[in-house]
Amino acid sequence: MSCQHEHEHSHGHDHDHDHGDHVPPIPTNESQSLRQYIDFSKVRGLNIAQPNEEIYQIFKSQEDKFSLKFKLTSDADSQLILNIPFIGFVKIFSVILRTNGNEDHCPRTIKVFKNANDIDFDSDKKPTFVINHPLIGVNDDEIDEEDKNENLFIEHYLPRSKFQSTTQLTLFFHDNWSDDEDEILKIYDIELRGQFTSPLSKDPIVTVYESAANPTDHKNILAQENKNQSSI
């Protein structure tokens, strides 16, 4: 997909991290993957080199997460936006990323939006949360399919109170570590962890209820019948 936007690159950081009392995050596990609840047919991206119908491959299974056969890359510069809808309501606990380790291709600031359908590169909407991604990842000159280094997967914990009843998650990869806007981002795996709570609401079902019989009505009918019979 070719990028047709001409947006202003503003690299001012608007961090919203809810440090609170520095309570350690609650650990997650593989069973909390939300992969099966992503609506892959509706996943869309902006300034992404791959066609929309191929983006689903970035959400790799646990068995394939080390594979480098597919990667998500930005198209024209160092920014990309990924819209991830779900088939129901979910609580999101964390975002796990495996990126490129080169400063030109590694994302640094990632703005996260909940249930926002109108995010583009000119949006001034405040993100629900901001992720600072470290300069850690796979290097282009050292790619090894046999490398099972779990430390190259970085888990970013989200404030759980802010990501309940989520039906869509938008990730805005805002810049890279080199601040070179002409370089492209390279992402090898994205995993979302959390909890599925309920399916999306469907059209209301209209039910016709038959009125219950009223004993008084029954007595009135019998009285009327008896009156008619006595008058014959």
Structural summary, described in words:
The protein is mainly beta. It has one helix spanning 215-230; strands at 44-46, 72-73, 80-99, 109-114, 129-132, 154-157, 166-173, 186-199. Strands 1, 2, 3, 4, 5, 6, 7 and 8 form an eight-stranded antiparallel β-sheet that branches. Residues 1-20, 207-212 and 227-232 have low confidence and may be disordered. The chain contains one helix and eight strands.
Summarize the structure.
InterPro entries: Galactose-bd-like_sf, PITH1-like, PITH_dom, PITH_dom_sf. The protein is 7% helix and 26% strand.
Q: Low-confidence segments, ≥5 residues, pLDDT <50?
A: 1-20, 207-212, 227-232
Query: Cα-atom Rg, whole angstroms?
Result: 27 Å
The total of beta strands comes to: 8
The ordered string of helix (H) and strand (E) elements is EEEEEEEEH
Pfam family, one: PITH
Family: Belongs to the PITHD1 family.
Region (Disordered): 1-29
Organism: Wickerhamomyces mucosus
